[in-house]
Amino acid sequence: MKVILLADVKSVGKKNDIVEVSEGYAKNFLLKKKLATAYTAASQNDVKLAKQHEEKVAAENLEAAQNLAEKLKERKVTVKLKAGAGGAAFGSVSSKEIVTAYKEQYGEELDKKKLVLPEALKSFGTYEVKVKLHPKVTGTLSVSVTEM
Predict the structure, then answer these.
(1) Residue 21 gets which letter from DSSP?
(2) What was the pLDDT predicted at 84?
(3) Given 64, 74, 87, 121, which residue has the most CB atoms within 10 angstroms?
(4) 110 burial class (0-12, 13-18, 19+ CB within 10 angstroms)?
């Protein structure tokens, strides 16, 4: 029996795949648990439209990530850090502090999980921090750590 998978099913196929399975497996497991739908011309058309929509959304997300990466190149975030004895930095700067400073300075949100810090920012200066915006797009944000 031919079915169209509505979700990824281990050892059968991925979402929106058209697969041939035994009739009992289809009726008693896939259809019953709403993991698949029976293959018809109408359902095939629905899958085709869904794939086109997913491709369009993926292209829009990629374009948005590329635009944000261009913005990040031009921007510089300043994070203030307390100074200890002898002018040395007291503590370190975390991704959460960078995201908070970015929001205060530019009014836009960044996800702290997307920041890739090479190591803890424990001294004053300017650092280049990579931001994973999309699997294909990585931006760079300039972070300046200054004395409070």
Answers:
(1) -
(2) 76
(3) 121
(4) buried
CA distance 38 to 5: 9
CA dihedral 144, 66, 138, 127 (to 10 degrees): -10
Q: What is the pLDDT of residues 40-54, one digit of tens each?
A: 888 888 888 888 998
Q: What is the DSSP string of 23-38?
A: HHHIIIIITTTTSEEE
3-state per-residue secondary structure call for 81-117? ECECHHHCECCCECHHHHHHHHHHHHCCCCCHHHEEC
Instruction: Name the nearest CA neighbour of 9 among 42, 33, 45.
Output: 33
Model confidence pLDDT, tens digit, residues 90-140: 788 888 999 999 999 988 888 889 999 888 888 888 999 999 989 998 999
